[in-house]
Amino acid sequence: MYNAFFFSIILILSSLLTAQVPTVSTSHGTGVSGYAITLAPQINEKTCLYSQDELESFLCALSPGFIEQEDIDNDSFTFVAFTRFKVNPSHQVNLAYRNEINKWFEDIVTVTTRGYVTAMDTDTITRFFKEVNQIIHEDKFIYTPGLPAANIIIEMEPPGGLRYFDSRIGETSNLKDNMGVRLIFSDSKIDVRPYNTGGGAIVGNLKKIFFTPEEHAFRRNNRFCKVVLINVLDPITRRTLIIHELLHTLGFSGHSPYPGSNLFPYPYRKLENGFKGPIIPSLAARMIEMLYRPEIAPGMNVKEARDLLANLKNANSTSKEEISLYVSQRRKLLTSAKDLLLSRAKQSYDLRMGLYIDLDKLSRELEQLLSEFRNILKTTGQNIELIQRISDTSSMLDRLQIIRAEIIALQFYKKSADENRSFASAKVSAKIKMIRTSIDKELDLLNKLIPLIKAIGVVESKLSSVENPAEIQTLENSVRCILRQEWYLNRINPQFGKN
Asked: Can you tell me the distance from the alpha carbon of 281 to that of 61, in angstroms, rounded to the nearest whole number?
């Protein structure tokens, strides 16, 4: 996703950037000074397969929101528009590490274009996916213009078209997993039930990417993402813009702190290899290689990918035997993690069921006492509104308040009855005695209700602490991530698996 707020100054001032902006040199373009909060650990570049900035760029690009544009500085807006970005505070690092990795695991990923597609656009897209296939050593991405629907759709708006958005010159909907998981609990076990969620995300951040009926139908059974680009006349920026958004479609949902990656938040008017050389910059090529390594499984989080890649030894490529060993170890780790999650979930379920049983027992006792109370009130011709108020009130404190107020009132009536009985005639005295007996029964039941309602309140409080829908959702998502990785490892098992 590119911001176009200062796009109009690109052609005029791009030549001034290198000379006037304070930068830190790196092996892949330019990093920005002040960039101190990093995701990559310190590594020994002599022994590690990937360099520090390659790994940093890769991890940031998998973490949406970690690298963001900063508010525009009016005093130096020409440079801010290109080189300044915001790094979230350090507490955001852990949030970034929890981001889930998504990539295309399908054997074939179809790509199509529509709209105002120029010959240069076709050349750029064709060469991009050809180079991606070369990098990952698979003929995975197949570009065919004019399809009604595909896994990746690139829509080019006509000149002057701003139908989708005003402040950005490109937008890509997010590549998401299409596996969902529901955990079905029973007394004896937990059933893990995967299901198809219906494809990729409907939209990115702007909620202004529209889909045709054919695309919606395609989404039901296929993962899907869509790119929309406004018409850009400058050929260099147009090409880098296309490459930027296509990198997002591969699974890089965030941005890189290195402009040379072509995933910098702002347009970078530079072609590393000119118009005739490779389309994909060398840093981006290394990032694609990392993402599509067989060890990087969809469902992993960013931290797991970081730990894996930071420990790969410097070599032309990791041997098949090493990958097979990793796959075998990863499978065992995932199985243990899933068993632990489900075991804890079962314990939580058993605890909840025990509390529900206790609550049911107490609720039946409450209903029995209220029924006795109702009969007493009906027998003496009294209003049963009090019973309804106690039943309708869900708060333990409110129930207790109603009951205590009634006890105070009944004790007052009882005292008055005792005082009046000594002065009353025999007939009136007998009637007062009946009223007093009824009051005693009511007081006895109300005093029994107090500890019972307190006990119900305690059980309900325990239930509220262990029955958290958000926790269940988190648990289901954790299990889903494990299942997705297991599915992926089984998929590559013929090539890298160990029995």
From this structure: 15
The rounded distance, in Å, linking the Cα atoms of 111 and 126 is 10
CA dist., res. 499 & res. 497, Å (int): 7
Q: CA–CA separation, 480 vs 478, rounded Å? A: 5
DSSP 9: G
Distance spanning both ends of the chain, measured CA to CA: 43
Give the position of tokens 């996703």: 1
**Euclidean distance between CA atoms 402 and 104, whole angstroms:** 62
- Rg (the chain; Cα; Å): 34
Tokens encoding 69? 């544009």
Axis crossing angle, helix 282-291 with helix 119-136, rounded to the nearest 10: 50
Give the number of C-alpha atoms closer than 13 A to the C-alpha of residue 43, restricted to the C-beta side. Answer: 25
b/e per residue 127-166 (b: at least 16 CB within 10 A): bbbbbbeebbeeebbebeeebebbbbbbbbbeeeeeebbe
34-75: per-residue pLDDT in tens? 455 678 888 877 788 898 889 999 999 998 877 765 443 444
| CB-CB neighbours of 265 under 10 Å | 22
pTM for this prediction: 0.74
Which residue matches tokens 């489900």? 342
CA–CA separation, 329 vs 341, rounded Å? 18
* pLDDT tens-digit readout, 145-188: 999 899 999 988 876 554 444 445 677 777 888 888 888 877 77
DSSP 49: S
Q: Are 122 and 113 in contact (CB under 8 A)?
A: yes
Strand order in the sheet with 109-115: 2-3, 168-172, 225-229, 152-156, 109-115, 141-143
For the stretch 30-37, contacts whose Cβ atoms lie closer than 8 Å and that sit 24 or more positions apart, written own/partner, are: 30/83, 30/258, 30/259, 30/260, 31/257, 31/258, 32/83, 32/84, 32/85, 32/257, 35/87, 35/257, 36/87, 37/87, 37/88, 37/89, 37/90, 37/92, 37/93
- E-strand stretches of 224-307: 225-229
